[in-house]
Amino acid sequence: MTNREWYERACRSLVGGVNSPVRAWGAVGGTPRFFLRGRGAVLEDAEGREVLDYVCSWGPLILGHACPEVVRAVGEAAGRSTSFGAPCPGEVELAEAVKRRFPSIEKIRFVSSGTEATMTALRLMRGVTGREWIVKFAGNYHGHSDSLLVAAGSGALTFGVPTSPGIPASVAEKTLVLPYNDPEAAEDLFARLGKDIAGVVVEPWAGNMGLVPPAPGFLETLRDLTARHGALLAFDEVITGFRVPEGGVQQRIGLTPDLTCLGKVVGGGMPVGALGGGAELMDRLAPLGPVYQAGTLSGNPVSMACGLATLEVLERPGTYETLEARGRQLEEGLSDAARSAGLPLSVTRLGSVLGLFFSPRVPASLEEVKATRGDLYPAFFHGMMDRGHAFAPSAFEALFVSSAHTEEQIASTVRGAAEVFRTLAPQGPGKEGRS
Ligand SMILES: *Cc1c(COP(=O)(O)O)cnc(C)c1O
């Protein structure tokens, strides 16, 4: 069956043919590809065409597809049972592996997605402080729970408004939405409402509006404000966690949040999320504390084995060096190719996660991201896909390199990008050398 035939069949049984909206290619147009298998950095679609994968399941596959050690661990775990609904050793071992990387985490609760990790962080922050208001930042994504699927409303107090029908305004307005990288806005808000704010949730590098680094002092201000006003600070490291050798952004910059949300890499491609923090705070969750949280498949033995095998391979000497080298090669290659084509492009990078902006400078906030030439993205996406390089089917998504990407594969992607950039450049091809 062709991709189109699969897609038409899918549309008869699945909403929009997909189980997560971005997969429908609505933002770039065309028929989504259906994938049959992956090996390392290479994906094979329903028509037998191979592409180099820079989505890597939106981050979890830091070792690439079907890493042999991970596949073996998953198979062995599944052979012992796909679920116990009771304690099992894998949960303890993965918790210990996470704690080795994140000194701020003394206790962990595993869940089945990043969405649940942040949702639980909010409940815990509210439950512990007895306050209701949460602060988030425009352009940060924390999954699709009601309290976090909100955007900045109009007006000075920036009460959140729902970004989807079905979210009560009374829930959304308990979330205050501030611009990213604007410490003064956070200071103003805390000066006015600090005593009612339960906590702040932030992506320490924003990975859902491209990849936007934190401005100097921004995260430090949030740490200081929350501490002074008796509020809690949660770092959403669902994307950034395990992407740097230090563990997360928090160790890299030496700033300790009260809570850390993890997902994606921690499950190695199986459905895993985690919430972690100091023991005193985490022990307020049930069964030790009053804040309720539960899950039929939480700590699932197959998922835990997948996460554990992934972290074990990651910790081998040389893996992070490879990730850093491949990430840098792609960053420099794309930057040089765009410069040669006369196309303004800014590339951001945290280890093996990259952001591309069709703009001469790196944006610092959602507003600045929206002002870049995102309209060039669909042509870039299709130009690259036609040449066998799969980027995310939506502008302003991060791209991911795995340890399975080879130097030659990345070089071929850079050559492909050089061709595509020339078709996108305002002056057209051949600008270089003309006077
Ligand atoms: C992907 C993501 C989430 C949500 O995780 P899911 O597993 O898709 O629910 C939360 N926060 C961040 C920063 C993410 O990138």
Automatic annotation (TrEMBL):
Compartments (UniProt record): Cytoplasm
Record's keyword annotation contains Cytoplasm: yes
Pathway(s) this gene product operates in, as recorded in its UniProt entry: Porphyrin-containing compound metabolism; protoporphyrin-IX biosynthesis; 5-aminolevulinate from L-glutamyl-tRNA(Glu): step 2/2
Stored SUPFAM superfamilies: PLP-dependent transferases
GO molecular function, one term: glutamate-1-semialdehyde 2,1-aminomutase activity
Listed EC numbers: 5.4.3.8
Broad class of the protein's primary localization: cytoplasm
CC cofactor: pyridoxal 5'-phosphate
This protein's GO CC annotations: cytoplasm
InterPro entries with a match to the protein in the record: 4pyrrol_synth_GluAld_NH2Trfase, Aminotrans_3, PyrdxlP-dep_Trfase, PyrdxlP-dep_Trfase_major, PyrdxlP-dep_Trfase_small
GO biological process, one term: protoporphyrinogen IX biosynthetic process
Keyword Oxidoreductase: no
HAMAP family hit by this protein: HemL_aminotrans_3
Family in the record: Belongs to the class-III pyridoxal-phosphate-dependent aminotransferase family. HemL subfamily.
Subunit structure: Homodimer.
The name this protein goes by in its record: Glutamate-1-semialdehyde 2,1-aminomutase
Lineage start: Bacteria, Thermotogati, Synergistota, Synergistia, Synergistales
Gene: hemL
